[in-house]
Write a structure and sequence with these properties.
Keywords: Hydrolase, Signal. The protein is an alpha+beta fold. It has one domain: Beta-lactamase, CATH 3.40.710. Helices cover about 30% and strands about 15% of the residues. It has eleven helices and 13 strands. A hairpin with a 4-residue loop joins strand 4 and strand 5. Helix 2 packs antiparallel against helix 11, helix 3 runs parallel beside helix 7 and helix 3 packs across helix 8. The chain starts with a helix and ends with a helix.
């Protein structure tokens, strides 16, 4: 009798599975990680996922019209879409802009797990006193965590990160404001590790996951450049909460903190990651708190690295998915620093494909 029941359960489970184009029952994919020594990468067909293939071309048309240079979708680490537009190609590098802040946060987390620093320490422990133009009692309120969460209390209207511009607006931890002072974290890591930031980053993060790129350090902007697949590699690391294959590159506790609300002022912001599905959000350059989720069209569990001119890494754990977009500003007349109307418009197109 037990054998009969088992047979019926097995038969029902098989009959409920969809077949691929060859009439073969698909095997549930395990998470895949590409080699770190070459750029070979497994792919997954759109048809095998049961996606709406008739919606692919409208998505591509939209991306091309919005000045996109490259677009990728990974599912379980495998490439499902990889498209290049407007003369761009797979080997060409492009700027991450503020999406690269998440690289700085992750590198800071690695330095903490190596016990080179503690994010609860005062920033002046690593930068020395007098690194700002604030009264010393106010400067010493600023922790490394405050730099990670954009709550340093430093004036955010001055983009040039020199001492004379680092003036007091509010006590650390009491005001969320999006600004360039995050760049001081590269000095924190460099001083804590006794290596320049790029060397430490390449050793501890980029080489571990096969990323190739370069940093451009400036007093106004600190920007990472890479090809699209290198950006996708970091997105895959993020999907797996800091783990690459069998190595925990940055510990899961820190990565989970990074993709959770880092403070109560802007709950849609972690450690440089933007978080969907919260009850309110703020945007760069404003102190307004907007009600509702960051992106109404995107999955609620999505977290994203967002940079000026719509550089994007969207990570969706519930779908085991990473989405990459690089390119010029989708709206050259009204370029943005981070979240924009482009995100919801793009997700409307993606949803017609994947749902």
């Amino acid at each position: 009798m037990k054998t009969l029941v088992y047979f019926l359960v097995l038969l029902l489970s098989i009959s409920g599975c969809s077949k691929n184009d060859d009439g073969i029952l698909p095997i549930t994919d395990s998470m895949y990680f590409p080699s770190t020594t070459n750029n070979d990468w497994e792919t997954k067909s759109i048809s095998s996922l049961g996606w709406n293939q008739s919606a692919i071309q409208p998505l591509k048309d939209f991306l091309a019209q919005k000045n996109t240079k490259s677009f990728m979708i990974l599912v379980n680490g495998r490439i499902v879409m990889e498209e290049y537009f407007n003369g761009h190609n797979s080997s060409a590098e492009w700027e991450w802009n503020s999406a690269g802040k998440t690289l700085v946060a992750t590198t800071t987390g690695i330095a903490q797990q190596e016990e080179l620093l503690n994010i609860n320490d005062k920033a002046s422990d690593y930068l020395g006193t007098g690194w700002t133009n604030m009264p010393l009692p106010k400067e010493t309120l600023i922790t490394v965590r405050d730099l990670l969460s954009m709550t340093s209390g430093i004036d955010d209207t001055k983009q040039l990160i020199i001492k004379s511009n680092l003036t007091y607006v509010a006590d650390a931890g009491t005001r969320w404001a999006y600004g360039n002072v995050f760049q001081k974290l590269t000095d924190v890591v460099a001083n804590a590790s006794n290596k320049n930031f790029e060397t430490y980053f390449n050793e501890k993060l980029a080489s571990k996951i096969g990323m190739e790129g370069n940093w451009n350090f400036g007093i106004i902007f600190t920007i990472y450049h890479s090809n699209t697949r290198s950006m996708a590699r970091f997105g895959l690391l993020a999907l797996n909460k800091g783990k690459w294959n069998n190595e925990q590159v940055v510990n899961e506790t820190f990565f989970s903190e990074s993709t959770s609300s880092s403070q109560r002022i802007n709950t849609s912001y972690g450690y440089f990651w933007w978080l969907n599905g919260k009850t309110s959000f703020m945007i760069p350059g404003e102190q307004t708190v907007y009600q509702g989720p960051l992106l109404s069209n995107a999955p609620v569990d999505m977290y994203a690295a967002m940079g000026a001119n719509d550089q994007r890494i969207y990570v969706i754990p519930s779908k085991k998915m990473v989405v990459i977009r690089m390119g010029e500003a989708s709206d050259p007349v009204n370029p943005n620093f981070a979240v924009s109307g482009f995100d919801n418009a793009l997700w409307e197109k993606i949803n017609t494909v994947i749902n």
